């Protein structure tokens, strides 16, 4: 009897037991109800009626309890049957696996026994076609895994052993085509990422991507031009920053001019920086004067929190100036006043 039939039969029996238990439980309850109804109709004074009532209730209780036990047993037994059937099915599965493995080993041992009875020359002739198919399959697997060096080596081995130069040439062309396509896909994906980094002016990321591409695909024409692309992009971005900076200077946009100068610092050579040093000094001087005026205005208006904020900016951005030293000397008093304003008055 197989597992499915056994499971079905066990579940059917359990369900039958559950149904019988329910019938017994309902029968007992009905018997108790009938006994109580009959006793109420006849009257409770007669001794015979009292005895019949006790007997009916006792029989009903016994029948109901039996049914309840049967139902409870069925409910408990059902999952146990499922667990047992599952365990048995797993045992059968392991058994089938072991039997299959044993059969496979038997076939291997039989093949080994047959092969040992052949001479070397006979075995070479008998297994020539099989060996070629095995090599072809291995070559295709290496191509699918993008392991092209291993595929080339196997083609060379096939050519040496079987002397089929035409097939070896076709296989090499197949490997070359697959390798070229793989390289193009990898390079294209990496170049797309490189272009994103270039648009974000992430020069460190561009150099990392370029180094990796050079290491893996250094012979690719587009990869060889990456250093020039980075240099040209830097130069173009520097010219754009310079133009925007000069426009900001002409518009007397001091804050934007200072921000652009900080960005330009990483692009300008010492010689280039020298030619713009006077303009830069004038920009920083205007920025300092502007901050100094703001600071004085906030102090005059008793805006202590704003005065502290502007004063700290002067100290951070122009630490070596006389104004920064003067502001620094006044900062403790200003901070105390700012703290005093921020505290609510008592009462």
Describe what you observe in this structure:
- It contains 14 helices and no strands.
- It has 347 residues and is mainly alpha-helical.
- The chain folds into 3 domains: 3-112, no CATH class; 129-224, no CATH class; 276-347.
- α5 runs antiparallel to α6 (165-199), α7 runs antiparallel to α9 (226-250) and α10 crosses α12 (277-300).
- Residues 342-347 have low confidence and may be disordered.
For the biggest sheet, the summary is: none
**Helix content estimate:** over 70%
- How big a fraction of the residues is strand? under 5%
Tell me the structural class. mainly alpha
Give the helix tally.
Answer: 14
Count up the domains. Answer: 3
Separation of the first and last Cα atoms: 94 Å
Give the H and E element order. Answer: HHHHHHHHHHHHHH
The total beta strand count reads 0
The low-confidence parts are: 342-347
Radius of gyration: 47 Å
Based on Cα principal axes, name the global outline.
flat
**Mean pLDDT, rounded to whole units?**
79
Give a summary of the structure in a few sentences.
With 347 residues, the protein is an all-alpha fold. Helices cover 88% and strands 0% of the residues.
Main features:
single chain, 347 residues, mainly alpha, 3 domains, disordered C terminus
Please specify the SSE layout and strand pairing:
Layout: H1 3-42, H2 47-116, H3 120-126, H4 128-144, H5 148-162, H6 165-199, H7 203-217, H8 221-224, H9 226-250, H10 254-264, H11 270-275, H12 277-300, H13 304-317, H14 322-342
Helix pairs in contact: 1-2, 4-5, 5-6, 6-7, 7-9, 9-10, 10-12, 12-13, 13-14
